[in-house]
Design brief:
By secondary structure, the protein is α+β, with helices and mostly antiparallel strands. It has three domains: 416 residues, no CATH class; 155 residues, Sandwich (Immunoglobulin-like); 93 residues. 14% of the residues lie in helices and 28% in strands.
Length: 858
């Protein structure tokens, strides 16, 4: 696409009657919307992203065994599934413009994926969608990596793998096309809430360095803490049935640490799931990240499995309440979307704050003959410009740390936080060596740091519920930013988009379109700490990007439709780049044999194992003595019952095994469903799956591919302690490799496996008599992995609540039934106290409101 100045010149050379084309008017139209959801079914073995500590160059914290796979180079392999990464899409149009929101569970966004998905959607719909597609990542630190072709981010996601990238793009496009096909007339509403989590039960501030930082004269009291704003986009049918719910606030996905090797949606998925179960049918629920850069999830429980679900328990009520209070409207809307790359080379970065400041970096100085003046602030406390301390035309990282992480590659300054920075050129050898490409290909500056992909969107009027509870017609306005917005960045965007563009309710959406690390305004970056150490171009980079969005965001104020992508969102950079080869590097295993890059044939796929193989990987949480592949017990009690089984399946390159819980209904087996109507499977937190190849290596050998699954007899979100009793079994559906193809997509055929049936029975109520009454509780297993509720213990005693029914028999054999209320004030040591004098009774049967019971013989 031609640049605008050249286009203008061509038009100027025409006849006097020639004139530049007039931008067409925006045409209001009735809103249409569709939504869909699915899962990323990538091979187990694809490395997990976001924690550099999983890199072999940083300690391999996720290392489990000596397996070697085809999808990782510098990171440890993933070994199983805690929850499958989701892909969710909301498609909105008004007959004139389109806005497509796609959210997926991954560490960071990538503009190459935006381009790839856009092309697929254009091919599938026949529409011109350039600049209309938004990809927003959840920022789980246990999502799949290996999809990012920006080589400086290999330290966060492992080396780029073409197959992983294409699989991701295909799945995103499939889900978005489903949303497009299901569009219907819709009603839209936007709800706002403030301080919706006042006790930090859901999320909390994690950045103490800016607690006392004063930026604005009218600075709110919360600034310096977490961003307390919550927004909900409500999308309904014309008869008020929910189509989709998209809520926005910022929360990291870090409940599973760097030593985790199971793919997981983490805290974001735990909350999304809980909100989804507030509905009695499948509704697309999408957590879109806001200012998550300096906020962490709050949680309770003894393990990340439990803590993940506890976040949902704490947060779903506030979100559902805001959704329920948000009004909607089907009136015609005007819709406009714009996308741009913001150019951000060292000499291009500046911050003006609408003409109130003039902040730039100084010209580059030869560090061998120069030293900065070490003066950051003037006498009035303002930032001095030019900022000569950031003398780094190639960029610098790890700024704000306690000490330089790589000595000898710092900046020529002694003033904090610049004195801890490490020049980007110090990483070239490390990245090239770890991820297997020639060091001479490590171009500086990092090619993709020259530009940052961004999008701005506006539609309305729609019904808007303000934070003060007032309802009016307003607009949905959002800036989609390429990185991790912090609370002060979000506040700055709200202020500047309001003041400079006149938008009353501007949303800050992060982790979208591209990734530039943490996004902090200059004052916050200069406070130091962890967050400034990731972005490449120093204290001015983030607000420079914001100003670029504000500049082209002016077109959203007009009543004409400008080109949403005039220069080409994917236009080649104006600086030299080097394209890394897309093929996976050929490297050798411990025995010197090439890593196999195509699947094993597995004729035994679908065979149940009844004896443990020589080695089988299961999560450390369960302990070394837990593995038991014998028959499933005929009866499994609620809460403390754990069921496990294993089978030989397909090579994970073709086999994303689906493990469904089924329940017998008369003579028919049906998939067990959650309250919202979703199948209970390995995609959700109910069933864990691990994978083990045998032999572990060399991968060039013919390997057997073994999967192990475990389930705890706990209901999904809504009925944890009261799961429906009945006859159950597990049904596995997978794929095995057939044919002789040497490249993806691989030819495969299905296999199935069904376990023996078992009965789920009520939990046993434990009873301990004492003078004047008795203690009652339910035991959870020591290796339980399911959250049981805020007052419960996933691996110990759980007090009964509300009331119990006592079926008693006195010493003369006379039966009676007594209802006894339990009071929280009498709960002690995770046991509940029952006020009931057992004198004169021979037997007492205690039953809670869910039918769990215990028998005390006196």
């Amino acid at each position: 696409m031609l640049a605008l100045p050249l286009l203008a010149l061509l038009f100027a050379c025409g006849t006097p009657n020639d004139a530049p084309p007039v931008a067409p008017p925006l045409v209001p139209g009735a809103p249409m919307a569709g939504a869909a959801e699915g899962y990323l079914e990538l091979p187990i073995g694809v490395p997990l992203g976001c924690f550099t500590a999983r890199c072999k160059c940083m300690g391999s914290m996720a290392y489990r065994d000596q397996r070697q796979g085809p999808y990782n180079v510098g990171f440890d392999e993933s070994t199983g599934i805690q929850t499958r990464p989701a892909v969710k899409a909301i498609w909105i149009d008004n007959g004139d413009e389109e806005l497509v929101l796609i959210k997926w569970d991954a560490c960071m966004s990538n503009d190459g994926l935006v381009e790839a998905v856009t092309k697929r959607l254009e091919a599938g719909t026949g529409l011109d969608l350039h600049g209309h597609i938004v990809l927003s990542a959840s920022h789980t630190h246990s999502g799949y990596g290996a999809y990012n072709d920006q080589w400086h981010w290999f330290l966060g996601t492992d080396r780029y793998n073409e197959e992983v990238f294409e699989r991701m793009a295909d799945r995103m496009a499939e889900v978005a096309l489903q949303a497009w096909s299901e569009r219907q007339p819709a009603k839209l509403g936007l709800g706002w809430d403030f301080d919706w989590d006042p006790t930090d039960a859901v999320y909390h501030d994690r950045r103490g360095e800016n607690n006392d930082l004063q930026v604005w004269p009218d600075q709110p009291d919360w600034v310096g803490g977490k961003d307390p704003h919550l927004a909900v986009l409500r999308v309904d049918t014309l008869d008020n049935q929910p189509i989709a719910v998209a809520y926005v606030f910022g929360m990291h996905g870090i409940l599973f640490d760097a030593d985790n090797s199971l793919v997981s949606t983490d805290s974001i998925g735990g909350l999304e799931t809980a909100v989804a179960e507030d509905f009695d049918r499948p509704v697309v629920v999408m957590h879109i990240q806001g200012a998550a850069g300096d906020s962490s999830p709050s949680s309770i429980g003894p393990s990340p499995y439990v803590r993940m679900e506890s976040v949902g328990d704490a947060g779903h009520g506030g979100i559902f309440d805001l959704w329920s209070r948000t009004p909607t409207s089907s009136e015609p809307i005007t819709l406009e979307v714009a996308s741009r790359h913001i150019w951000q080379a060292y000499d291009q970065i500046k911050v003006t704050r609408n003409g109130t400041v003039d902040w730039t970096y100084d010209v580059y100085h030869d560090p061998d003959v120069w030293h900065s003046d070490d003066k950051i602030y003037g006498e009035d406390g303002s930032i001095l410009s030019p900022l000569d301390e950031f003398n780094a035309p190639n960029g610098a990282v790890f700024c704000g740390s306690d000490a330089p992480l790589i000595p000898g590659f710092g900046l020529q300054t002694e003033v904090f936080p610049y004195n801890t920075c490490v020049r980007a050129d110090a990483l070239t050898g490390l990245i090239a060596g770890t991820f297997a490409f020639p060091v001479e290909d490590a171009v500086l500056p990092f090619p993709e740091t020259y530009k940052a992909g961004t999008t701005a969107a506006r539609f309305g009027p729609i019904s808007v519920l303000s934070e003060d509870g007032q309802t009016a017609q307003g607009e949905f306005v959002a800036g989609f930013f390429p990185g991790e917005p912090t609370a002060m960045f979000a506040e700055q965007w709200r202020r500047r988009a309001g003041d400079e563009l006149g938008f009353a309710h501007p949303l800050t959406v992060g982790y979208s379109q591209d990734h530039e690390g943490y996004l902090l305004i200059p004052e916050d970056w200069l406070s130091g700490g962890y967050e400034p150490n990731i972005n490449v171009f120093g204290p001015l980079q983030a607000e420079h990007i914001m100003e670029g969005v504000l500049e082209y965001g002016k077109m959203l104020q007009t009543d004409v439709r400008e080109d949403p992508d005039p220069l080409g969102f994917y236009a080649p950079p104006v600086y030299p780049t080097h394209e890394l080869p897309t093929e996976h590097p050929v490297y050798k295993d411990a025995d010197g044999d090439p890593i196999r890059l195509f699947p094993d044939p597995t004729p035994e796929a679908g065979t149940r194992l009844t004896e443990p193989p020589e080695y089988l990987h299961i999560p450390k949480h369960f302990g070394e003595d837990f593995l038991d592949l014998g028959p499933i017990p005929a009866q499994v009690s609620r809460v403390d019952g754990l069921v496990q089984f294993a089978w030989n399946g397909g090579d994970p390159m073709v086999d994303p095994p689906h493990v469904f819980l089924e329940r017998k209904n008369g003579d028919t087996w049906e998939r067990a469903l959650s309250h919202s109507g979703r199948p209970i499977s390995e995609a959700m937190a109910d069933i864990l799956v691990t994978y083990t190849p045998f032999p572990l290596y060399p991968s060039s050998a013919d390997q057997t591919h073994t999967y192990w699954a475990v389930w705890q007899a706990v209901g999904h979100v809504r009925d944890r302690m009261s799961m429906q009793t009945g006859t159950y079994r597990f049904h596995v559906e997978g794929q095995r490799y057939v044919g002789d193809s040497q490249t993806w997509p691989w030819a495969s055929e299905p296999y199935e496996l069904t376990t023996e049936a078992f009965e789920v029975v009520p939990a046993t109520v434990q009873i301990e008599p004492a003078p004047g009454g008795m203690w009652v509780w339910i035991d959870a297993p020591g290796n339980g992995f399911r959250y049981l509720g805020a007052g419960e213990d996933a691996i110990g005693r759980n007090p009964l609540h509300d009331h119990v029914q006592l079926d008693v028999i006195d010493v003369d054999g006379n039966p009676d039934i007594v209802q006894v209320q339990l009071f929280d004030a009498r709960i002690d040591g995770r046991r509940a106290w029952v006020d009931f004098d057992t004198t004169g009774f021979s037997e007492v049967r205690v039953m809670d409101q869910y039918g769990n019971y215990g028998l005390l013989t006196l």
